[in-house]
Amino acid sequence: MPLITDVTCPQLVPGDPGYDEARRVWNGEIDRKPAIIAQVTGPADVAGCLAYAQANGLDVTVRGGGHNMGGAAVADGALMIDLSGLRTVHVDPEARTARVGGGATNADLDAATQAHGLAVPAGTYSDTGIGGLTLGGGFGWLTGKHGLAVDNLISAEVVLADGRVVRASTDSHPDLFWALRGGGGNFGVVTEFEYRLHPVGPLVDVGLFFFEIERGTQALRLARDFAPTLNGGGMMVVGMTAPPAPFVPAEHHGKLGYSVLLAGFDGTEAFSELAQRVRDTLPPLFELVTPLPYTGLQKMLDGIGYRGNYAYEKSVYAEDLTDGLIDVLVANLPGKASPLSATPIALIAGAYADVPDHATAFGGTRSPRFAVGITAICAAPELLAADRAWVRAYWEKLLPHASNTGGYVNFMADYEQDRVKVAYGPVKYERLARVKAAYDPGNVFRHNGNIKPAQG
């Protein structure tokens, strides 16, 4: 097959040096071989790739950070548009805005913005690509204070399926701009994001409080009771195996339990009072409470799920950590086979809930909630089959306690069509389908949580 002649960017085909590295994504289970990998340098290259793919009957995938567990970035025999070369971040500290290349990671964004004491809510892993993260919604430690990534998106440069390059914002292509803010990679290839920034750091306060599984019920109830009192702070609860980290006493390495992670942005004195409330309510088995650079907070979970492990996940939304939900969590966590597998539960509240439900396409209502994830992460492939079954069985048991069984689209490893529809709800999904029909009637962008074009 001839290489694409209408682009100037590097292209890789099977057998080329660098091809195998370029097709590798975060999940080690994904082993797919695209026909061509185009390492684009800008919108013109993307437009040329899209024209070539459609003329030659090739599927199109788009790679940002490659963090999606389902491997949406790569497909056998497809043309992969690799955005990883588009990682430039331009910060305007006076306007408190940043223009960010579509292939940038959280680490790229955080490093550039924190040089000016600024940040945008964007994820909890440093090597996550900002593209897929933002297009699906993008919650992070700052969500309670400043909302989702999509709530802070000012504009996006988008290459459409027909090759046009547009700038979507509230004033230009507003219907597309609405859909991009939560509708995933269904509408085009975003080569640049423009964000609103907020003063953060450089030091923030972090607390990790670990409770063994025998006190898992009490730990989850503590998290439930503390959630309404956090005043914009961040909280995540992780059912996990205690790692052999320096701050974990040796006698507790490998213990199963729950970590309650808190992040504070209002000063060490206020956070110290919060930490003492935790201790007074339920003394932890061990803890780590410390000021930390904001960039360090963004990297804190990297070691839980590092690139190259074999992985799978599902999720639900829950309006609250009810006693029934807590019972399911505590009873099922011990069924995992891999010490790295975990149940990350993120509080999504505060400023998130100040945004009207239909202001963006983000799946789910804007009432305070918990995103309950079940994540299999296995260093050895033979563990994945057992933990994939664990995830699926666990998820089924959570469904009676869920407020939205579709879950968070960025936490989907399987893109079942019914789950995608449920995630958005009928009103949003119908509107998204109309926007899809207007901007991608041929469903070129379908290797994702796909929204099919409306008919007629």
What does this structure look like?
- The chain has helices at 19-23, 43-55, 106-114, 130-136, 143-146, 174-180, 216-226, 268-281, 294-299, 323-332, 381-398, 417-439; strands spanning 11-12, 36-39, 60-63, 79-82, 89-92, 97-101, 118-119, 153-159, 165-168, 189-196, 198-199, 203-212, 234-241, 256-264, 286-293, 310-318, 343-348, 369-378.
- By secondary structure, the protein is an alpha+beta fold.
- A seven-stranded antiparallel sheet has the order 15-12-14-13-17-18-16. Strands 5-6-10-8-9 form a five-stranded antiparallel sheet.
- The longest helix is centred in the last third of the chain and has 23 residues, at 417-439.
- It is globular and about 65 Å long.
- The two termini are 36 Å apart.
- The relative contact order is 0.13.
- The mean pLDDT is 92.
